[in-house]
Prior knowledge:
Blueprint: H1 18-38, H2 42-56, H3 65-84, H4 88-108, H5 110-153, H6 159-177, H7 180-198, H8 203-216, H9 223-239, H10 243-258, H11 264-297
Helix pairs in contact: 1-2, 2-3, 2-10, 3-4, 3-5, 4-5, 4-11, 5-6, 6-7, 7-8, 8-9, 8-10, 9-10
Amino acid sequence: MNFLEIPVDLSKVAKKSKDEEIVGLVESCRKTARELVEENRRIDALERIVEGLKHLREFSDFESSEFRAMLVALLFDLSELHYELKDYKQSEKELEVLFRVLENLIKEDGERFGKYHILAMELSTRILRSRKKTMELLVKQQINAGQLYDKVNAGVVAATDRLVDSLRNVGELLASSGDYRGSLKFYSEAIKLSKRRSGRVTVKEIEMSIDMAKIMMRMRQMRPRAQRLLDAVLPHSIALEAISLEEDILALQEIIAQDIEHEPMWKMFMHKVQKATDKVKKATGKVKQAAHRRKKEK
Length: 298
């Protein structure tokens, strides 16, 4: 995974100010997120980036190029993480905001910010390719699941485990394609068959339940259900001493608690960012027009 390196010009940030403190907090969140990704803990990394965005919205000047540079870095991190988690729909949403912020930054300082636009375009291309590959795999997995259903119904016991894996694969692919509700149906069926096969809750059912919770979290109205599901499987992960799953559950619960994307403060923050971006755009346009008039007068 790529983490953008956009050095903040601290000479443009007041010394020993709240803004300087925010710069340090954002950099700390991103550093921790990088470390967590190296440990293959992407959900925990996502939670750290969300925390960084919460710090950033307290910055005093949304028109500042340094503020917008930090915003670009965090938005890119979010989009990359959601891509890594195969949530292509959410990754695209974050890219749309990222491109809007970058548009004016490139006009102001193309040498500094132009390369980040290229990296964002590259990520956009990766998302499109992954979406296409997802749809191709989805067709194959759905056919495979249908064939395995026939074997299970015919009494082939060994086919049950393979059917569970196939249903889970279809669920994952549907979620990646943006069909969240369709995905949940396949995961639900996979968990039901898996429990019936094992007669108890195993690591596999906990993993699939966490996958379901992650998909539910993508739909605002289903977040309470995601919370209840995570609450239900947490004791099982503790009992089975599945530490990595326990960490994933706790990180997801923290993200639900923050619910940053749907907070009124977050929406107000993004509205203010857009207004500041538009203001900078108009100011840049006026400067260019004045320069053009002077050139014609000469």
